[in-house]
Amino acid sequence: MARNKNLPLTETTYYILLALTQPRHGYAAIQEIAQLSQDTVHVAAGTMYGAIENLLKLKWIKEVPSNDKRRRVYVITTAGKSILQLETQRLRHLGNLAEDFGY
Amino acid sequence: MKKFRVFLDLNREEDWINAVQATGYRLTRVNSYFHYYTFQPLVATDQFNPYTRLDFRDKWMSRRNYQNYRQFFSDSGWRLIAGGRHGGIQYFQQKAATSDRDIFSDEHSKLSCRQRSSRYSALCGVLFLLYVFYILKMMSNVNIFDVKSWYLTPGLWQMQGDLLWKAILFETPFALLRVLPVFLFLIVGIYYLCRAIDGYHR
């Protein structure tokens, strides 16, 4: 079975897609990721801005209207959800495999 | 304190700014056309010695996009010192000691920022030099390396004594207007090409 060419995702991309399950602006996503990862993953501003641009281009996330004129708000798209699903299956498979080996 | 410096590379520029700041200054202004950097000495009310970091934008941004960009960095603890929505280098300074130390948290995103800058320089270099070649072709009777050919007045060099000097004095502004833009574009074009070549080397 040919694997989707966008896989595997980077840890940062994976976390951003997870965080944008709810509509959030960029900095809110950074904070959410820090919390989700128990402060092990901290995405810096320049890295986050570039990642959002890239995900918008891939159409994995989209902008949604908001009341805050100064901050754009983004949410995951159907395409983003399916890539997240594929990556999660891949990671789950790896996890199960490792378990079989006694890890 | 004002300093003039020309850099071919964003990392070296950033390192230099932070090295100057480490001696007790903070960057307050950058003139990106004339490459002047203005530093102010830290005062007692400054609680810390900030880091300055460079981002590069290769595209024009709408007013709203640029506001979003600045607001996002501001939320993340970075104040914009210099830069504009029409692209180029954006200088960000830590707002507080608790801000992140860098605007990039992985090598990949930092590298792609530096690549954006190299590509942009390559494009600018080619455009400036194409323009210079085009102009030189249009002014085929002027050789920019031969000062005498800058003066287009017929019979100027056959004039004698006083008349020659008066004529030269009168014609020189026109001659300079004719060739200075070409030299300027040539220098800027070569500068951009050097930036691009330097970027591709690493």
Layout: helices, strands, pairs:
The complex is a heterodimer of chains A (103) and B (202).
Chain A (H helix, E strand, L loop, with lengths): L10 H9 L4 E2 H11 L8 H13 L3 E4 L8 E4 L1 H23 L3
Chain B lengths: L1 E3 L5 H13 L2 E7 L4 E6 L10 E6 L5 H13 L2 E5 L5 E7 L12 H32 L22 H41 L1
Antiparallel strand pairs in B: 1-3, 2-3, 4-6, 5-6
Helix pairs in contact in B: 3-4
Please sum up the structure shown.
The complex is a heterodimer of chains A (103) and B (202). By secondary structure, chain A is mainly alpha-helical.
Key terms:
heterodimer, A: 103 residues, mainly alpha, Arc Repressor Mutant, subunit A, three-stranded antiparallel beta sheet, 3 strands, globular, B: 202 residues, alpha+beta, 49% helix
Outline the structure in words.
The complex is a heterodimer of chains A (about 100) and B (about 200). Chain A is mainly α. Chain A has a single domain (about 10-100), classed as Winged helix-like DNA-binding domain superfamily/Winged helix DNA-binding domain (Arc Repressor Mutant, subunit A, Orthogonal Bundle). Chain A has helices at about 10-20, 25-35, 45-55, 80-100; strands at about 25, 60-65, 75. Chain A has a three-stranded antiparallel β-sheet. In chain A, helix 1 (about 10-20) crosses helix 2 (about 25-35). Chain B folds into two domains: about 1-105, no CATH class; about 110-200, no CATH class. Chain B is built from four helices and six strands, in the order E-H-E-E-E-H-E-E-H-H. Chain B has a three-stranded antiparallel β-sheet, covered by helices on one side. Chain B has a three-stranded antiparallel β-sheet with strand order 4-6-5, with helices on both faces. In chain B, helix 3 packs antiparallel against helix 4 (about 160-200). Classes of the chains: A mainly alpha (about 100), B alpha+beta (about 200).
